[in-house]
Input
Amino acid sequence: MFLELNDDILQEVIEEKKNVLVQYSAGWCGNCRIMKPKFKRFSEELEDYEFIVVDAERFPKSRELANVSNLPTFAAFKAGEFKGQIQTNKAESLKQFINEVTGN
Output
């Protein structure tokens, strides 16, 4: 599933869903806009993961969950726990990160 959050509720999503991958972005971030359709495409390949887009500027509580300092940042959460992150604007690097955290 692919979802963009409209509220600062990432913590609740992480607690509710078993496997969550997050793209932290911002409206002004060109690389974020470039990576978003790629992130969405990867969501179609993994049905047991929730793919969530979070506006890191608008939702500081969500941003703190992965200690985001650069954009775009992609983070993985499993069973409510932070498992890692990558800051990248390259689809190949994102795919490798997703494969590592999902075991694919």
